[in-house]
Amino acid sequence: MPWAPTHHFASNGSLYRDFKDDLSWVSKLKISKRYIWLIINFFQCFLYFGLRPFSRYFYRKINYYLCYSLYSQFVFVAEWWSGLELVLYMNKDDLEKFKKDHKYVIMNHRYEIDWICGWILCERTGVLGNCKAYVKKSLQYVPTFGWALRFAEFIFMERNWEKDKEIITSLINELVNYPDSITLLLCAEGTRVTAQKLEASQKFAQKAGLPVLNYHLTPRTKGFIASLPHMRGKITDIYDMQLQFKSDDPIKPTLTNLLQGKQVTAYLSISRIPLNEVPEDEKGAEEWLHKLYEKKDRMAKSFEETGDFFAISGVPKLERSIIEKRYYSLVNIICWTVVVITPMLYYLINLLLSGSIIYFLIGAGSILLIYLLMQRMIGMSKISKSSSYGTNDKKLQ
């Protein structure tokens, strides 16, 4: 196991574990991150309006590093703070290709932290700063984090097909012309899996004559089909990414548990599919996506029952690949701590201890506001509070 602060200090006793479990430290961590994000947002906004109209090339080059600085803070929490382990099954040649080219990733959407696991993979392969995804429009209004995604040119879906088709056409054409390789993520299920949504999805699939899945929602095909014509010739490969956590693990894969420093192990299987294998006609592409999700469902069933993606799924076994975590996310958070967090805490403490009621209220109000904004973001990530999209037949169509 690679050395990490988590494992080193934990071996010396319970002091480090108690430190991580202390909710007051969790709150301080969340508050500090929000101040950093606001600074990143400021520079993104300045570049978006001051540089992008004249040179999208240089805007995207610079924004890559701003995005990396923000995204890698989540990687830091997962890898260095909580000690998350990533077990990867992927052929070595595919892994090398993943590092270099534009890529389209289709991933299951079952867990609160599946997106963080995807970011960990992208960080270790050196492509984190240019990660993009199809996300719901409401996310862009989440202070600091949502604003950063907007400046990063994520594809925000309104779930109104006529509008979404125009958005997809416009942004895909923009993204494939990026100066560096991008990673575009699609969770074709449209929302995170819950028992209620799975039941509704299965009923819809039965009525529509589609494959009935037991671990995934019936995939939405329109966004995928609308994207294909604009990717051909620009993106050569699709990566089928299947993420699982062991259901009998007492520590559940939640954002709160990561912030509290509780370790989980993620299992990730990734296979490369040449884009030219996807039929060009809409009907053929739709059938292809449904077949892909049947395969993903068999892999999920195999993992749940045997702890192995390949044991009873009928899917050819992939080799185990080792990609060590890098120190960049750790260095990033240390730099922000020295430059921003330390003086910020100094001035906040001075405000609180100044003896002035007005200064005290300003300091306390600033901390409370940042804390509430972070709580809202965590709330949006919880499975119980995820989108209601997909719970009735009308929305499934």
Automatic annotation (TrEMBL):
One Pfam family per UniProt: Acyltransferase
InterPro entries: Acyltransf_C, Plipid/glycerol_acylTrfase
Residue intervals passing through the bilayer: 35-51, 327-349, 355-374
Keyword terms of this UniProt record: Acyltransferase, Membrane, Transferase, Transmembrane, Transmembrane helix
Keyword presence, Transferase: yes
Domain of life: Eukaryota
Every Phospholipid/glycerol acyltransferase domain range: 105-225
Annotated CDD domains: LPLAT_LCLAT1-like (cd07990)
One Gene Ontology term of the molecular function aspect: 1-acylglycerol-3-phosphate O-acyltransferase activity
GO cellular component, one term: endomembrane system
UniProt cross-references to PANTHER family, sorted A to Z: 1-ACYLGLYCEROL-3-PHOSPHATE ACYLTRANSFERASE-RELATED, 1-ACYLGLYCEROL-3-PHOSPHATE O-ACYLTRANSFERASE 3, ISOFORM E-RELATED
Family, per entry: Belongs to the 1-acyl-sn-glycerol-3-phosphate acyltransferase family.
Name of the protein described by the UniProt record: Phospholipid/glycerol acyltransferase domain-containing protein
Organism this protein belongs to: Melipona bicolor
